[in-house]
């Protein structure tokens, strides 16, 4: 298990342990709490293949750099080179690669997208491009070994370091600025659903394929945002700005931040705008039919403590 010290990786480790599997977890950071029964080891996979690797049946590769801002070389080092190093470290094990729906075309709506619609040839940032390149490495490896690619979208849940904090940080007084009209549908993926998909991919009878992984059904963006705000007890409501007005502002902000070589992202990027303003839904019928994936619906119950 790579990325075992992270949000998703930790959840997958716990799910595997609940199913009675022996788990060896790898991460760059010291062992986090909550990984009881996991043989945790330090490994910066960007530095190269792991010498004297343990003998394992399957690898779930969750480690990666996730952000819509940053130097391309950093994303390449972790997401592309790191994936190559994990493939080389465990050449005979089944390989489960946790990718992202960001490999779909960000410049047009994603409407119940099937797996064969990605990777594409154009991306808005180094994150999407690096994950697409990593997928191509895994796809090439499928000719010689069992390998499965999972594509979640907008992962949330207890310990979420990205999606929920970003939504909450955007609140301004009684308003939550957003892009689009609020009626666009979006597929979300709970960490619990993704963890179950990882276990099915690592231990089930299907040994190859690419699968979208989301909650049971899409939700309306405005409904999701209002549910998050209500769960956190925040007296604010979403307000929507048209994409045609936001896009040039996001483009200008990105240019300015690059000129000053800022390490922190602009408050709004083209990537974020593109994922809010139009439909982003995935077809999960392949995962249901082939992996036996039966996800729970989207829920923010308990979000007050996340």
Automatic annotation (TrEMBL):
Taxonomic superkingdom: Bacteria
Entry-linked InterPro entries: Epimerase_deHydtase, Lipid_A_modif_metabolic_enz, NAD(P)-bd_dom_sf
Domain NAD-dependent epimerase/dehydratase: 1-213
Segments forming a coiled coil: none
PANTHER family reported for this sequence: BIFUNCTIONAL POLYMYXIN RESISTANCE PROTEIN ARNA, DEHYDROGENASE
Protein's recorded name: NAD-dependent epimerase
Organism: Catellatospora bangladeshensis
């Amino acid at each position: 298990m790579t990325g075992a010290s992270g949000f998703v990786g930790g959840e997958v480790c716990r799910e595997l342990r609940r199913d009675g599997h022996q788990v060896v977890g790898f991460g760059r950071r010291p062992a986090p709490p909550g990984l009881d029964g996991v043989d945790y080891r330090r490994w910066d996979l960007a530095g190269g293949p792991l010498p004297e690797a343990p003998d394992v049946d399957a690898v779930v590769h969750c480690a990666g750099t996730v952000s819509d801002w940053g130097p391309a070389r950093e994303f390449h080092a972790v997401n592309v080179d790191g994936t190559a190093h994990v493939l080389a470290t465990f050449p005979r094990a089944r390989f489960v690669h946790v990718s992202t729906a960001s490999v779909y075309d960000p410049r047009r709506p994603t409407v119940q997208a099937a797996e064969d619609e990605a990777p594409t040839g154009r991306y808005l940032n180094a994150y999407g491009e690096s994950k697409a390149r990593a997928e191509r490495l895994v796809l090439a490896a499928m000719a010689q070994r069992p390998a499965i690619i999972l594509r979640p979208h907008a992962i949330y849940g207890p310990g979420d370091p990205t999606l929920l904090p970003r939504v909450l940080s955007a609140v301004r007084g009684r308003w939550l600025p957003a892009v689009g009209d609020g009626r666009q549908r979006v597929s979300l993926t709970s960490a619990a659903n993704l963890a179950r998909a990882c276990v099915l991919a690592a231990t089930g009878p299907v040994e190859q394929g690419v699968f979208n992984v989301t909650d049971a059904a899409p939700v309306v963006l405005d409904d999701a945002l209002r549910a998050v705000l209500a769960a956190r007890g925040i007296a604010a409501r979403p307000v929507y700005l048209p994409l045609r007005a936001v896009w040039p502002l996001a483009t200008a902000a990105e240019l300015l931040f690059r000129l000053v070589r800022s390490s922190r992202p602009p408050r709004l990027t083209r990537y974020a705008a593109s994922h809010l303003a139009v439909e982003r839904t995935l077809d999960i019928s392949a995962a249901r039919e082939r992996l036996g994936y039966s996800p729970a619906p989207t829920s923010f119950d308990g979000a007050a403590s996340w």
